[in-house]
Write a structure and sequence with these properties.
The protein is of the alpha+beta class. It has one domain. The chain contains five helices and two strands. A two-stranded antiparallel ribbon has the order 1-2. Helix 1 packs antiparallel against helix 4. The radius of gyration is 13 Å and the shape is globular. The protein starts with 13 loop residues before the first strand and ends with a helix.
Length: 95
C-alpha cells in the first residue's frame, strides 16, 4: 500500500508506471507509483505514442484536460474501491 503520485490518494495499492513507455525506450527511465485506477485510465485514454509525445511527467499528466477531470473525481473515491475503466471512444477508433 502506498500513495498514488497522480491522484494523491493514500493507502492504495500502487503499480509502477513508466513515464516514458517501455516500448519507446523508457525501460530504465523515470517511473511513478500510481494507483490501479489512475494507471488504467492513462492507458485507456492514450496510446503509448501519445504518452511518449506529451505525457512523460506527473505535472503533464495532472494538467491534461481528460485526466484532470478523472483525477478530480477519483480523489473523492475511497481507496478500497476498484472500478472498471473502459477505453475511450476516441482511442477505440484510432486502432
Amino acid at each position: 500500500m502506498g500513495t498514488c503520485e497522480l491522484c494523491e490518494r493514500e493507502d492504495v495499492e500502487t503499480t509502477v508506471h513508466h513515464l516514458l513507455p517501455k516500448e519507446m525506450g523508457g525501460t530504465f527511465g523515470a517511473k511513478a507509483n500510481l494507483c490501479i485506477p489512475c494507471h488504467k485510465q492513462i492507458h485507456a485514454l492514450y496510446t503509448n505514442a501519445e504518452i511518449a509525445a506529451r505525457l512523460t511527467t506527473i505535472p503533464e499528466l495532472k494538467l491534461d484536460a481528460q485526466l484532470s477531470s478523472f483525477i478530480k473525481w477519483i480523489r473523492k473515491q475511497p481507496s478500497t474501491k476498484l472500478m472498471k475503466i473502459k477505453k475511450s471512444n476516441d482511442r477505440k477508433r484510432k486502432r
